[in-house]
């Protein structure tokens, strides 16, 4: 007799992630921050720069390529999935 109509099961909304609002173009302050902080980082990946400076990953990839071409950072491993860079240590610093 206890099988009567109980409360109807409600569907859960699922787990919602926080929507990140990363910039798709550099602002003046972000560009200055990118140029000052990134060359000093020991391990430079797209994801670390995106988290630190809050820019889009596509923008970050282009900026890192440009920085690598200019010789400010050095590519360690560049595959289609992951790009790893490191700071460019000059010859004089290695001898010390």
Explain what the structure shows:
- This protein is α+β, with helices and mostly antiparallel strands and 96 residues long.
- It is built from 4 helices and 3 strands, in the order αβααββα.
- It has a 3-stranded antiparallel beta sheet.
- Strand 2 (73-78) and strand 3 form a beta hairpin.
- The longest helix has 13 residues, at 57-69.
- The radius of gyration is 23 Å and the shape is elongated.
- What profile does the largest beta sheet have? 3 strands, antiparallel
Amount of beta strand: 5-15%
Number of continuous helical runs:
4
Shape: elongated
Widest sheet: strand ordering: 1-3-2
Task: Pick out the low-confidence regions.
Answer: none
Helix content: 25-40%
* Average pLDDT over all residues: 87
- N-to-C SSE series? HEHHEEH
Distance between the termini: 86 Å
What's the number of extended β-strand segments? Answer: 3
**Structural class per helix/strand content?**
alpha+beta
Please give the radius of gyration in angstroms: 23 Å
Question: What does this entry show, briefly?
Answer:
Helices cover 38% and strands 14% of the residues. The chain has 96 residues and is of the alpha+beta class. Helix 2 (46-53) crosses helix 3.
Key terms for this structure?
96 residues; alpha+beta; three-stranded antiparallel beta sheet; 14% strand; elongated
